[in-house]
Batch of 2 targets.
Target 1
Amino acid sequence: MRHLSAVTTITMLVLAILVAPTSAQQVGCAVAQQDGHDVVKMENYRVQLVIDPSRGGAVTSYSDKLAPTELILQKPFSGLCMDHFQEQTWPGEFLEVPYEYKIVSQTPEEASVMVWRQATGIWRGTLANPKLDGILLEKTYTLRADSPTLTCAVKLTAPEDQSKVFSYWMQDVMFAGGDYDAATDRTFRPSARGVRSTGYDNNGHYGREEWMRDFSAGWMALVDTVKKTGLAMDTDYNELRINYANGGNQTNEFMFNTLYLPQGSSRTYTVRLTPIVGLDKILYVGPEMIAGWHLTPAAGGTGEMDFQAVRSAQAVQDMQMAVTLVGGADTSKQVKVGVVPFGALTDKPQTQTVPYTDAPADPLVVRVEVQGTEAGGPQFAVSMEDFFPGTYQWADNIQTDMRTPIYAGVRPSQKLSLEKPDNLAIREPWMERYLYFEGLHDDAYQVANAVHSTNWNVTKDIIYYRYGGSWYGELTDFPYDYDKLLSYEAIILGGISKSGLKPIGMEMLHDYLLAGGGMVVLGSHGAYGRSQLKGSALGDAFPVEMSDSVFDLVPTGGKPVKYGPDKAEFLGYTSLTPQATCYFLHDVKVKPGAQVLMQVDGKPFMVASEYGPNKARIVCIVGAPLGNPQNGQTAFWQDKGWYLILRNAIWWAGKKDDHFRK
Amino acid sequence: MPRLALIPTIALLLLPLAQAWAAPAWQTEAEALPPANLLLDTEVVADAAASGGKAVRIPLQKGQPPYSVNFSTPPMTMQGTVWFTFYLRGENMSAITDPLRITLIAHDMQTGGYAFMKAYPVYGIGLKPTGYTTVSLPLQTALRPEEYRPAVLVQWQSGTEGAAPVAYLDKVEIATEAYVAPVITEVFPDKIRYEPGQKVEVRTTLANLTAAEAKVTVVGEELTGIAGKREVFRQDATLAPGEQKDVATSYTLSKEEYGREIRVRLLQGAKEVDAASEYFHVTSIPLWTSTSSNYDRGTDYRDMHTIFYVQPASGAESWRSVLFFKKAHSDRTEYFSWSPGDISDLSPTEDPFPGGEGRLTYRSRTTIRQQLAMLKSVGMWPVTYVNGTCWAESGYKLFQQHPDWFLYDANGEVAHYEMDRQQILERRDDYDFDPNTYPTIFFQGTLNHSLPEVQQYIAQQYIDCGKEMGFKGVRMDVRYLEVYPGERGFDGKEIAKTYPEADKISAASIKNVKALVHKEIPDFTFGYNYAAPEEVRDMMEAFKERCAGGGWMLDETPCTYQSKTSPYHVWKAYVRRMTSWGDQVRKFGGIYNPFDFRRGGGKYVVDNIYSSIIRLIASGRFACYTNSRLPFGDLGAFGTRYSELLFGANLDWLEEINGQVAVKAAAPVWWEDMVYWNKSAAGKRQLIVHLLNPPAVAEVEENPQSNLNPPVRDIQVTCASVGGAKPTAAYLLMAEPMEPDGQNEVRAVKLEIKDVGGKATVTVPSVIFWKMVVFEW
């Protein structure tokens, strides 16, 4: 068993008594001088800290009264709640620079301090990131008399006359336990593979896992596992992009999703920082609690688990943990261990043990469902999960091929909340402007020739699609800036998938159509069924209904491309040769009202329709530039007339009807 | 081994018969060296153990220049092997790491440049614990006498944290050779590997550096098995004074397989005045005994292999590398990652072409074909690495033409593609194009190996790379013609729903491709990655088919076993993992090729030594860690000479010891997981017991000082009777010396069998790292 030792427990108790009663002590907040400049000191029954406006408005001193030691190295670039943008090279323009400050509220129960600074987008003397220029960053620290948690709310506001695009990054550089140990200071981060514990040293084959992308909840904690002290932080999971820990255990940093901010609008990220005492293996961090656990197996599927819980931001009057053990290698094998009751959570760790029998063989997954009641009555429920690899000290959630996890849980999907312009409408740039998303083999389409032929001077943007690895689709860029997106005459959408667009991209492209933008959708390896856009607002706007299957390419046997039953003005004066052949077609159904402009063997090849309140024009090319031409055949994408047909489709989609009416 | 390559560890040198010591041509007390030649913190100190009571103290100190001692001597006449002798003692020196590196130089008198240069590390294990040790190091110079200016550089080669070694130098001597009879300068069998029954042509190069004409007889003796010996040629020659001459001889091999030593004796009348040897492989299955020596860390070395597939190379450079690897007893060369697109482009027609699997490292088709011809001319077997997926432009084009030939995942996707990189690649023919702007390959897809047309396509690629490029085989990585459950064809249907089904399809695919290729190139060889037990447990039929007929089976997973998450980072567990699996691969007909820790070797010297020894014991074929200055011997030469006892097809590993053999020693010695039955080529039953002095630290990469256990002495090995019969002979085979300060030598020594309690018992005097006992009936 790995209970807290008796000495430790007694020490905790004494300390708890020394700092109690918790709510009787007022929160302190005062301006002081430090090294010739103003700082703000905050303190309550549990923590004391210093906010230094001259150093990026960061928390430059932090101590937990239950484990009194300075967590922050007293040197530049160390501190909590340090601001950075992912678009900028570190250290960026916010670290170690002066902020404005003010105490915005101060009562016996709660104090708030705000620091702020306006971004310039300037890096090394030049305006490297114009989309950051003018963003107002306001950071408000709140400390309550009755809570150990420091809340840091970072509000980012676009100027009244400009929209902005940014990816915020909060950096916390501190020493758990007040000193640094490469092996025993550990960062705990929830992931689909269990709660990962990483240090600079003593990691398994996954290494330090600095850039954790498969995080499964919005928290992380840095703990001195010898002293059992540290700091936990949590935020909104839906806003996160990466849980980053430099060196595995030297920093704990939340990297947030890329966000578009319309003119004058704001987004606020809230991060809670809560001290930890008495826990050395973290299972969960949230506003309800911080939980820890151990598992000590005996023989024959028996053993004992202990769970610890301490209070976090909210006061909890009671809760219970329903514990299930699951086979790590075979999740069908499960045993319900029982329900572990806890009383009111305090700063002192409350430990409950529970024996188990009939457990599956190691490795195991522990699943805990928590139900509880906050002080004052509101109910809450949270889930937590971790992986137990076995008692061998170096065991890990990895198979002996040293590549594949033994167990991989499910990451909850993240929910979006985009900021949008009030008026979704296509801008009217003076020069034609096209955006092309290029997927696999779309280069065969002669899109360049088609766009070059649209006008003598056009602005062309291209975004490439990548596919592979653990992250599936990826785009080299995306116009997260609505102002830019809405300035395109037409978008040529090659074979890119929803995993590349991600929910933000899909929603913004659909907004583009709602605004009346034009779109030419190319058939190819990655298009239609394989794009998995069916069921999304974007995919459902197309004039064809896509297959449910990602395997929607059907061989034609090599058939010529001919005009369809419906006529289109933009196809006048253009034609393919009779040898133009299509070898593969996407399996689609033409929606009512859509026009089949070209076809292959009676099946749709080019389909067009209008969509939405602003009559967005969409052309779908349902053939794919794949196949091996035989004697006497010309692949349709290589036919001499092809690029003009495509050019005219782009014109039509972009509502440049005057071009083909000349 | 050519005699001239033998490098004694200390000065107890046996004079070669044809040579004589001259008196030292130059000598000095170290304290007499000019102070300006003593650098960093090197200084003259009082030392009662030194001659004259003074010595030069050389502590470890890093700085610039990095040398602690740097001196030259007056010009002197040098000839043949020149011996530089240093009287040294050490303090705090590690046994086998952090050596003192001594560089010997003979400056050209005309140009001032290096005429000859050689560097040697001196380790603590080569020095006596007390007093001074004479350390003699050879520098090969020209055979004919000429004047040079010698020089010596001394520096520490220390990387271990906390190491603080100190060396003391008492005096230095330089002596050159004098020749009293003709000598052999090289024994050169024309090939490194032969098939049984083939003709061997041996070129013996003689030099007569005496002042008189010499009539000599060259006698060739072939050594086989443990103790087999026969005379295979005898030829007279006459050498004028100062003459060098090649004596060409030949003989026909018997039908027996495995390692050979050709020993050439040089007789003047009835007296043997010189002798030299070389080893080679004799196998009917190509690569069956393919082990060799890696670069010798016991002297200076440089990369000799990347010119085969990475850097541009002249014909002369290529030939020099060919001879280098032949000398290291390597019969296998692998061209790694050279082609523009691997399985979709194994015989490129462009010249030059964008090599490195399309990474835009431009390669010459002409040069590669020329190199392959060179390698084959000395019996080497060049194989091509094949990433078993379609990469880069050729794969991209193939996919466009035949998307129905490819495998898809559940998302309907192929392995990976990056269209931004494809656009960069489009500009590759521009003069000012920078290949560094194209860091990764833009397309990768896997063919659907279940399709007969795909199998035919792949077979044709292999045939073309054999016939057009000149490769003798392939080694597949990433994919090896298999399919897995969950992989789908173009129609989205799973090719195999279960592992048994996938296993069956994969085995058939492998078998068919092999058969298609062998129709055109009967001796074309196949090799495969993913030969670890963890990787094949669900695909055993395919694994057997891959092994069958001499498949080169790369077990790569051990490159991760130093990881603390691996149960095999504990040496004891590692031994059994390797020996048990090597036995399995061999019994399936495969050639076991286990990777080293971290691919290139473990962190510390001791990890590399033990890893090589254990993998050899496990029938592993690979380039063995080599350091001629350390007493574990030339493992590559040993593996070549005694390949039958390490790789023989008749070997049978004993999973459990049930009284067949017992080992007793005062100190721990490992042997239980390293015992084999064998039937020799001569038809004799053998019991092979490997004796390993265990690593001093139980876990891999936990011994930064590379500390060693003392030699295990007086080890009693007892062998039970078989069918009532006791063994009739016993041998001790080794590459290492009997004592740590002895001389490395590949050899077999007959052991006296004693009857102890009714059982045949032999006593092994000592094991420093590894020795092998063979009982024979």
Target 2
Amino acid sequence: MSELEICNITKDYGPSRALHPVSIAVERGEFVTILGPSGCGKSTLLRILTGITQPSGGEIHLGGKRIDQAPPEARDVAMVFQSYALFPHMSVAGNLAFGLKMKKVRKDERARRMAHALEICNLAGLVDRMPRQLSGGQQQRVALARAIVMQPSLLLFDEPLSNLDAKLRDTLRHELTELHRRIGATSLYVTHDQAEAMAMSDRIVVMNEGRVVETGTPLELYRAPKHVFTATFLGQTNLLPVVARGAEAQLPWGQSVALDAPATGDIQVSVRPENIDICADEAGSGTVCAVSFMGANALYTVEIGGRRIRVSQSGVEHLIETGRRVTLQFPGPVHRLNGTTAQEAA
Amino acid sequence: MNALAIETASMPRRRVFTPEDRILVTIGLYGALILAIAVPLALMFLWSIADGWSPPLIVPKDYTTARWAGILGDGSLIRATVNSILIAVVVTVLTAAIALPTAWAMARFPFRLKRLVEIFILAPVIIPGLVVAVGIGQVFLLFGLAYSVTGVILVQIVGTLPLMIRLMTATLETIPDDLIHAARSLGAGTVGIVLHIILPLAVPGLLAGGLMSFIGSFEEFDKSFIVGAPVVETLPIKLYMYLDPYSMQLPLASIVSFILLLPALVVFIVAGRILRDDLMAAGMGKI
């Protein structure tokens, strides 16, 4: 049995259903991210896990015990809030000590745990500061320390980095990953930022409209997504309807490509921009409509067979100008999406 | 035309505040303070010790402390003062105890007819005190609460509660939900949350409201008079007795005002010492 088992949890608000039966399993020490656009039910799920919100149905087991009926204070769960939710009238030390005092942890043990949490969150010099005297990044680290000092069975993160500026977010993301490696707490992280999810997680659970779309490692989900939603939400991709004949398929403009899984009939494939090669060719059937040079790579939008295809080329020495004729090549097999027909994607 | 447009655009709409302006602002503020508080107080003090001060005279003809001695020498005045302080303390504590849960509900939960309830809470402030007093006086007579300290305390709470609830609601509305959720998930039960999170964060509102209630109770006259007099004697009731309606005596009125002013002064100074300025302002500024 996994450390955390979410079984068929649902949530209804009156007649509208915020969560369709959702089931997620998280192994001990795993870092799992729930990724989805805003309003997909990921925050509701997190609130149900902390006990702030009651589920309409289903069960939650943590460490073998059923917890979905337990009040928040009786669950071995700690959460890092998006708004940090630091107690403004308590110093950093007071914030950290609060939970330990509430759980009646002995004084020497308390001091030991606090010292440890302060050290791993780089807060050593800020113990006596009040929250309002701290910067956003520091407040975020205090919120994190306050959660890990509890040594919970499950650590929850509700978009903890979304209130920080891009550079700080990057730094804290690294710190968080490093921290998870050191303390190894079972963690569930909620975000709408696919880059964050891919960089940090052992596994990603993609959610949309109150349902789990699919689950997998960042690499699996990026390279071989099953669903259109995953393919488009994680990074950029080109969705193309093709006619499959076994291991080969014909693109809408007649070109033949290899498929990664054999199929027949009308199917849909997802091709990442970086898996397409572009080549200037006066006899080519494509036309470059737009070029943007990003430094590490160049992004082309190519019009071919009435469609616009995004192509990314890395290590460019010469840019192909707008309006030039090009040919596209597909060096590897293209990825076939499961469970969706061309009509659904259109 | 063009040049004009450029000139208006480059001119700041408002003059920037410079350090040199500080002296003017200081003079203005202190001037207002002197006019509003110091001058009336000085005049009152002069009146209280004046012995003969009729219109053509700029300053009193003579000075006397006889009236002060007369009033302060009245033994029943001490008793009335003690009465008033005790009543004010009980009223303040009870007001806070009733207002806190009410304000919590008003601040936290949406419910039907909330606007109507808000108006009802403020009703005792909108309706003149005397009307409230007469109405309640009748009811208290029926219940046997008239002429009792309990009755006076209850009738005063009617007057102090609205402001306290308003102040507490405003304070509690500023506590984010996430703070409560965080405390709960950190293991705090209801008692823990009230003791360690809500009460400490409500302190500015509680103190501001408490001061208002204390002073409001201490200086309350009409309701206490109708319900309690002549059996229950509070300081205002006692002091108003000194004022003879047939010959308005400014000297006596001045002394009465001074005595009634004293507790307000003491309470504000004490509160100022306890509270840091920003907290006090936070509580006071959100009425």
